[in-house]
């Protein structure tokens, strides 16, 4: 998966109506709540085989940080 | 992980009741700033829709008792043939004795039928099946009535949007019998006690001794009863309420629960194709689908309609799910998995091919359920000896009078029906 595809997916994961950008601060999103974090955990597990933990998500601030959590599974 | 196989246990009947009162999340738009879009988002992500909730007077035991009565009449069961009553409950009517004795009496079960409570949460149905199956397989018991009841919705502040839209209430009755013919059921139970604080009621037992008749304790409660704590999500929660770390529990659920399911499949030597449905505890749609995918099941086989229509009714959610399966759906090798407070993940492969499975029925409030004021008044009169103690269900009035008569508790039982004032 490349970054552009992931950003579209992320919009759906968060059930957000505006596009997500790599530099966005997640804390500025109204939708960045516990539900969204759970959705990210489930999505990463299913699609990347990456088990993201609660601690990992607490350290994340930007969309870019979220991308790096996949450990290189999202290409440019 | 505990693994077990039973070969002589038949699940003969499953009954589920839910309170009649239904709340739909679209009727609660005021809690979402008037935004139907926000509700749509919640419905899509978590499956919030409808839930059935009990009133303040109804207890888990009342729901379980009603389900038991339905079961007895629906399959025309001889009550005297039941030799064990197990009530799985986390909110008993009283701390002692086991609430199972109360239900035993109300149902008029025999003196040859043992009774006890088991304290379990969302994994409680599978856990109860496991305990009952052990008792049958050992040859000691032939017919066990397993009851489950819970009222997690009662007492939740409706403005608490983290909890209120999730929980529904329910009661179930399951009959397990000894079978000469081989019927295989298999269990896998993973006990992760390191997570016991992840879902807990810290202020509900003797760890927090608080006696409001003592001035010191009364003052302490007066000071702390309204205390709110800001959680890491930035939401205020009451200190003295139940505690759940949602994200930590989700973490456990997507890491541990699929592994329990996979382990059970491996142990049973069955393939996913041989499993018609994966009936999961109805925590919420998001969790159900995450566990289903994690266990590598086609999501078509993983129902979540029970959550959408009845809410998360904790230990009753798997029987509710089973009750909603199509009547003609294959029910051999049904894989069920309950998970939750403990923390525990408990899975079972069950054969329900010849099981009577009732529709989900509305709870009929038993006549003995009274208001708190009436309950307290009744106890005033029982303590003072003005009225007799309850009890003496079935045909045991005579024996009851002999036993309790010598202590002044004479006359027929009032059965908590306080109508004197």
Largest sheet of chain B: 6 strands, mixed
CATH class annotation of the largest domain in chain B: Alpha Beta
Q: N- to C-terminal separation of chain A?
A: 9 Å
Q: Strand portion of chain B, in percent?
A: 15-25%
Strand content of chain A: under 5%
Rounded mean pLDDT score of chain A: 90
Shape of chain A: globular
Number of domains of chain A: 1
Secondary-structure element order of chain B, N to C: EEEHEHEHEHEEEEHEEEHEHHHEEEHH
Main-sheet strand order of chain B equals: 6-5-7-8-2-17
User: Main sheet of chain A?
Assistant: none
Q: Report the helical percentage of chain B.
A: 25-40%
**Main interface pair?**
A-B, 17 and 21 residues
Using the coordinates shown, work out and report the CATH topology of the largest domain in chain B. Answer: Peroxisomal Thiolase, Chain A, domain 1
Name the structural class of chain B.
Answer: alpha/beta
Q: Using the 3D structure, state the CATH architecture of the largest domain in chain B.
A: 3-Layer(aba) Sandwich
| DSSP strand count of chain A | 0
Under CATH, the homologous superfamily of the largest domain in chain B reads Thiolase/Chalcone synthase
Radius of gyration of chain A: 11 Å
- What is the CA–CA distance across the termini of chain B? 56 Å
